[in-house]
């Protein structure tokens, strides 16, 4: 269901390319995935002098996907659930956020960034319907705006399939993490379901270091299998394959194996013929 929903988006943007008028959807599965969007969204806004408004449980407490305090001197304005008049629901939160946006406009802020994890609202009686109404209102107000952009976050582990399918229709944009590396030849992007990297373009000797850096970061940050989605690769040299074999053999103890997924047919035959997939810690996953 989740993959089907994500395939229906007409607009998908990396977080650094969000713009005023974007009412964006982030459906995450782990805190790491959440932080790869929320962190850059907030940090870039603060660095550029934007007004950044975040929703948190309490003032001075952790901001979902961000932690506290953020890096650097500037901090976002926090709307604290604990300080809002109860009972607190989506409508109360929306009014509080609207007041902060109006204040920013009155103070001449050039751009306003809003981010809120609204998963909690689904657990209250009638929470889904109230949240849908608020999201539609937010879409109607943010969409035409020339200064406001918003990222609405939902934890897919705590949402039902029907809830997700209804909520996603109230957002105009799906936001994804920025690529780890991107140039005219090669693109390396983080993936989270499954955890790993997606490669696209051509991987030659001049970009081995970029792949190695990205792969080592992923391997050091978690446990279980690390997957490489290779469906977008048009070319990979033997040196890169040797590099993958070396990293698989030297993998941290918490990493089960390095899995090569969706290998293009021409590369698959090379891997099988040479026998790379039989090396320690390296195995073939989903076919192309």
From TrEMBL:
<dbReference type="Pfam" id="PF14417">
    <property type="entry name" value="MEDS"/>
</dbReference>
<dbReference type="InterPro" id="IPR025847">
    <property type="entry name" value="MEDS_domain"/>
</dbReference>
<dbReference type="Pfam" id="PF13466">
    <property type="entry name" value="STAS_2"/>
</dbReference>
<protein>
    <submittedName>
        <fullName>ABC-type transporter Mla MlaB component</fullName>
    </submittedName>
</protein>
<dbReference type="InterPro" id="IPR036513">
    <property type="entry name" value="STAS_dom_sf"/>
</dbReference>
<dbReference type="InterPro" id="IPR058548">
    <property type="entry name" value="MlaB-like_STAS"/>
</dbReference>
<feature type="domain" description="STAS">
    <location>
        <begin position="197"/>
        <end position="275"/>
    </location>
</feature>
<dbReference type="InterPro" id="IPR002645">
    <property type="entry name" value="STAS_dom"/>
</dbReference>
